[in-house]
Design goal:
about 325 residues, alpha/beta, Rossmann fold, five-stranded parallel beta sheet, two-stranded antiparallel ribbon, 12 helices, 7 strands, about 40% helix, about 10% strand, globular
């Protein structure tokens, strides 16, 4: 298993961790499919942004992280939450506006935070997690904790001022942060070909004297290898890196997106590059898993989703008189 011809993930991680990575990717997929179905049935209100098709980016980027490490997330952040070990029941409860949710039902899909597991929160503001990640990394450096922060953001955020300010500050102070751009080719309905001057977003790393790499974001092994190198560099005190995961969301930007700017052929072509199928095929081909293991993983994930939905459905609603409690602003804030 030490052969250099093997994919990085097979060489770097033991069987248990690889099987767990696949399990998490399947859970993310089934969680979002169940969330989508709940929305269609009127059980969830508002909107949501699904990352179906991007699971390798979330899980692969978290493979090198330790318990002390942190992440910042995005409005398309369900996968990041689950990659860091979030509880399915509490996530669904947050979707359903229940008191047992991560934010007591006040935040919903775009504002889940799980600080105990190092998830500093999803963010409804495009690029909003970038300066938070820099602050987290600065804190780790000043306190000498050795922690690294992975900052997830989408391709749309790379044209925000917060992106450039955050990369510049992180580079000046050599902060232990890894900027992970999940480039799914569209900022809402705007193609990156029309919105971004550089061919690869990772090329912008050069302006801030940090390494930049673009990898196949649907290849779990490629993602894990690139982010692992960046995390090791950050932990060694050598400063930030920018990793661009080229991936694709198989659903629309949000639940109101009618997909009129994409062709069915494009979506179908990307569906053939499904990250879950690819990882499972790699593990089978290298003897890490057997062909029959997928059915078992699917069944286990389905049971966990059913249990989580039941927990959320049976959880209490917030009390009307406490609607303004547990929020950061408002006359009744605590």
């Amino acid at each position: 298993m030490a052969s250099s011809n093997m994919p990085y993930a097979v060489r770097a991680y033991e069987r248990r961790r690889l099987a767990d990575a696949l399990r998490k990717m399947i859970l993310i997929r089934k969680f979002e499919e169940a969330a989508e179905a709940s929305y269609m049935r009127g059980l969830i209100h508002g909107t949501m942004h699904l990352s179906i098709g991007q699971e390798a980016s979330a899980v692969g980027s978290c493979m090198s992280l330790e318990e002390r490490d942190k992440i910042t997330s995005t409005h398309r952040g369900h996968g990041h939450c689950l990659a860091r070990g979030a509880d399915l029941g509490r996530m669904f409860a947050e979707f359903f506006g229940k008191e047992t949710g991560y934010c007591r039902g006040r935040g919903g899909s775009m504002h889940i935070a799980d600080v105990e597991r190092g998830n500093l929160g999803a963010n409804g503001i495009v690029g909003g997690g970038l300066p938070i990640a820099v602050g987290s990394a600065l804190s780790a450096k000043r306190l000498g904790t050795g922690a690294v922060t992975v900052c997830f953001f989408g391709d749309g955020a790379n044209n925000e001022g917060a992106f450039h300010e955050s990369l510049n500050m992180a580079a000046i102070w050599k902060l232990p942060v890894v900027f992970v751009c999940e480039n799914n080719l569209y900022g809402m309905s705007m193609s990156t070909d029309r919105s971004t001057a550089v061919g690869n977003i990772s090329e912008r790393a050069a302006a801030y004297s940090m390494p930049g790499a673009t990898v196949d974001g649907n290849d779990f092994s490629a993602v894990a290898e690139a982010v692992d190198a960046a995390v090791a560099r950050a932990r060694a005190g050598e400063g930030p890196s920018l990793v661009e995961n080229m991936t694709y969301r198989l659903r629309g930007h949000s639940r109101s997106d009618r997909n009129r700017y994409r062709t069915k052929q494009e979506i179908d072509d990307w569906a053939k590059r499904d990250p879950i199928t690819r990882l499972f095929g790699m593990l089978v081909s290298h003897g890490v898993m057997a062909e029959g293991d997928m059915a078992e993983l699917d069944g286990d994930a389905a049971r966990k989703i059913d249990d989580a939905l039941a927990f959320a459905a049976s959880s209490p609603d917030p009390k009307v008189e406490e609607a303004a409690f547990y929020v950061y602003a408002g006359s009744g804030a605590r």
